[in-house]
Amino acid sequence: MEKFCKLFETEKHGQILVKLDVNEKGIPEVRFYAQPEGLSVCSIAVAFSDDDAGWDLADKAFAKSDTDFAVKQLEPIFKMADEQQ
After folding, report:
1. C-alpha closest to that of 35 among 14, 21, 20, 19
2. Selection from 68, 75, 76, 74 nearest residue 8 by Cα
3. Where are the beta strands (DSSP E) in 1-85?
4. Torsion of Cα atoms, 13 then 18 then 23 then 28, to 10°
5. What integer pLDDT is reported at residue 60 of this predicted model?
6. What are the residues facing 59 on neighbouring strands?
7. What's the predicted TM-score (pTM) here?
8. How far apart are CA 19 and CA 30, in angstroms?
9. CA 57/CA 30 separation, integer angstroms
10. 74/1 Cα distance (integer angstroms)
11. How much is the average pLDDT of 66-78?
12. Quick one: pLDDT at residue 38?
């Protein structure tokens, strides 16, 4: 069975979940989840085209997702959380 999610523990940002998924329109995406201090669970997604090339790109983006890549994708959310405090 292939992985569909990855969970990372970070000192600064806590848990980060990365999930290979399909959005409500059936489009492949890689979605990143975090719960910054002062906010509920937040997510941001990178969507791809709904064709073979898009699915391949989504698979590759998920495969290369590591802690650093996930933190980088979530930077806008972490910045917003910092500004709220």
Report:
1. 14
2. 68
3. 5-10, 14-22, 28-34, 42-47
4. 140
5. 96
6. none
7. 0.91
8. 6
9. 10
10. 27
11. 96
12. 86
Overall average pLDDT of the 9-19 stretch: 97
What torsion, rounded to 10 degrees, do the Cα atoms 44, 46, 10, 60 define? 160
pLDDT for residue 30 is more than 80 = yes
| Longest CA–CA separation in the chain, Å | 43
Q: How many CB atoms lie within 10 A of CB 66?
A: 11
Looking up tokens 């791809």 gives 48
The whole-angstrom separation of Cα 13 and Cα 8 is: 10
Amino acid at 1: M
Other Cβ atoms less than 10 A from the Cβ of 34: the count is 23
Q: Look up residue 66 and give its two tokens.
A: 């590591």
